[in-house]
Design brief:
Strand content of chain A: 15-25%
Structural class of chain A: alpha/beta
Shape of chain B: globular
Strand content of chain B: 15-25%
CATH topology of the domain at 1-81 and 192-218 in chain B: Rossmann fold
Number of helices of chain A: 7
Strand order of the largest sheet of chain B: 5-6-7-3-8-9
Order of helices and strands of chain B: EEEHEHEHHHEHEHEEHH
CATH superfamily of the largest domain in chain A: P-loop containing nucleotide triphosphate hydrolases
Structural class of chain B: alpha/beta
Radius of gyration of chain A: 19 Å
Order of helices and strands of chain A: EHEHEHEEHHEHEH
Shape of chain A: globular
Largest interface: A-B, 29 and 33 residues
Helix content of chain B: 25-40%
CATH superfamily of the domain at 1-81 and 192-218 in chain B: P-loop containing nucleotide triphosphate hydrolases
Largest sheet of chain A: 7 strands, parallel
Radius of gyration of chain B: 19 Å
Distance between the termini of chain B: 48 Å
Largest sheet of chain B: 6 strands, mixed
CATH class of the domain at 1-81 and 192-218 in chain B: Alpha Beta
Helix content of chain A: 25-40%
CATH architecture of the domain at 1-81 and 192-218 in chain B: 3-Layer(aba) Sandwich
Strand order of the largest sheet of chain A: 3-2-4-1-5-6-7
Number of strands of chain A: 7
Oligomer: heterodimer
Number of helices of chain B: 9
Number of strands of chain B: 9
Chain lengths: 236, 259
């Protein structure tokens, strides 16, 4: 089974890209799709109705969506294997920029809009720097020069990434992406883990304590001045 | 060296194959794409810009010197032989004009010492409102943005194939642009509604319903008409500049320009 994990901020064109991939490949291979979102998502319903593929979604609710993704991905991959899937596509919620949802196997794809701003790739941290493929969308909305400026920015952050430009609504120039997915290595269920480092452990904020100021918390705390490590709670 | 650009037929909006076997342009040739709005003019030059290989909505394929362009040429801006000026008159990048051009020069592998200054100077020939290097590209007017992108395409894009999408829009001095890019051995393709530009190119491609309908070669009478039209257009241009400067039409101006 091939695995493609798709990340990127809201409205970048992740779902439009997934639709192009599914529309191109669903007659040749068996595709399953998982959407991870926080409050509301319709992608699973739309994809099932339009292409008749296997879909699932989970809402993270009060949980961090990346955390939720890590929690359910093990079961989800088992589910995809059990249904004889050839290609499993996971679309992340794309919210917090601390983590990246990519695994040590399969393809990690970041979707970035041409109009998201020139500094967006830098601000998105691991979501960009750990991706295998970067797809720049909405290219019909900006000039060639501006597209090339954005691509240069991404290349300077991540020189090894495979860069693609598309108008995802029309599926322009995506042949290379289809080939990359087709030729990617099959994943094995053993030894699957996150590519990036998760954030530092839980603390009292994570479990819901609302008081402000480091004195009211334990776990990972930070004062206005000084390093995090200096006041890290180390137990009694 | 790029000597030939070949376009292989795709399909029109009704799914029918285009009625030509192939269309080849030689270095130094100019061509204009004309036809009503929605007839597929921009899609045609976008196919060229993306070096389409049957993977765009039209399914056209592009060959350079009769060969399928390599992935490196398709995806690396530094190797891309095509500069396109789109209809966009807006930049979203939160950068100064200088930074914008610097990054683009890096992307295109252009290292000229004073390339940024030269590009801004050239842009200022095309527009009446001066662009300064510290101006944010997001705050440039439509005409300034257009002028900057044209200058950028000529000096930083520095490509043997230039695609221009309706340069007559957005208040720039098109005569200057026309003069500058003509006769430099490039393949130049204009999408246009402007008769001066359309009659000035050696070939005209007529678009309809997403497909190339026919190709017309410029005849001698048209070349003559084009020269007259340029004169007329210059006079209209002068009147336009007078009005933009807040002047009124005087009898003198009328005799000078519309006689």
């Amino acid at each position: 089974m091939k695995l493609a994990i798709i990340a990127g901020p809201p409205s970048a064109g992740k779902t439009a890209l997934v639709k192009q991939i599914v529309s191109k490949l669903h007659n040749q291979i068996r595709i399953a799709f998982l959407k991870i979102d926080v409050v509301k998502a319709y992608e699973d319903i739309e994809l099932e109705a339009e292409f008749g593929i296997l879909t699932k979604k989970i809402y993270s609710g009060d949980l961090c969506p990346d955390h939720a993704g890590v929690m359910v991905l093990g079961d989800a991959i088992e589910w995809a294997f059990a249904n004889n899937t050839d290609l499993f596509i996971v679309e992340s919620a794309g919210l917090c920029l601390r983590c990246s949802p990519y695994l040590n196997q399969g393809l990690g794809i970041i979707v970035l809009s041409s109009i998201s701003g020139i500094h967006a790739p830098e601000k998105m941290g691991a979501m960009v720097s750990l991706a295998d493929v970067a797809v720049v969308t909405k290219i019909d909305l900006v000039s060639q020069a501006e597209r090339e400026v954005l691509i240069q920015k991404i290349r300077e952050i991540h020189p090894q990434v495979t860069l693609l430009e598309t108008n995802a609504l029309q599926g322009t120039s995506l042949q290379r992406l289809y080939d990359l997915i087709r030729n990617s290595q099959d994943i094995s269920q053993d030894n699957l883990c996150l590519k990036g480092n998760p954030p530092l452990g839980t603390c009292t904020i994570c479990v819901g304590k609302k008081e402000i100021g480091w004195r009211n918390h334990f776990g990972v705390v930070k004062k206005l001045d000084g390093n995090i490590a200096d006041c890290l709670y180390r137990g009694e | 060296m790029i000597t030939e650009l070949t376009i292989l037929p795709g399909f029109n909006k009704s799914g029918l194959k285009e009625d030509f076997d192939e269309l080849t342009l030689q270095a130094g040739e100019t061509i204009s794409i004309v036809g009503p709005t929605g007839s597929g003019k921009t899609a045609f030059i976008t196919d060229i810009e993306l070096l389409a290989q049957g993977d765009t909505a039209t399914k056209r394929q592009i060959r350079i010197n009769r060969e399928v362009p390599s992935d490196a040429i398709r995806y690396n801006p530094a190797l891309k032989p095509i500069a396109m000026i789109t209809q966009n008159t807006k930049c979203f990048a939160d950068l100064s004009t200088e930074e914008f051009l610097q990054i683009h020069a890096r992307a295109r592998g252009i290292h000229g010492k004073n390339i940024i200054g030269e590009t801004i100077d050239l842009a200022n020939i095309f527009t009446g409102e001066k662009i300064h290097r510290n101006d944010k590209v997001t705050t440039l007017s439509g005409g300034q943005t257009r002028s900057l992108l044209i200058a950028d395409a000529i000096l930083i894009g520095a490509a043997p194939i230039v695609l221009l999408d309706e340069i007559e829009n957005a208040g720039i001095f098109k005569q200057e642009v026309l003069e500058l890019i003509h006769g430099v051995g490039k393949i130049i393709i204009f999408v246009t509604h402007d008769p001066v530009i359309a009659l000035h190119t050696e070939k005209r491609l007529i678009m309809e319903n997403g497909a190339v309908k026919k190709v017309i070669t410029q005849n001698d009478l048209e070349l003559y008409a084009a020269r007259n039209l340029v004169e007329l257009d210059k006079r209209i241009g002068l009147i336009r500049e007078e009005l933009r400067a807040g002047n009124i039409i005087t009898r003198e101006l009328l005799n000078l320009n519309l006689a």
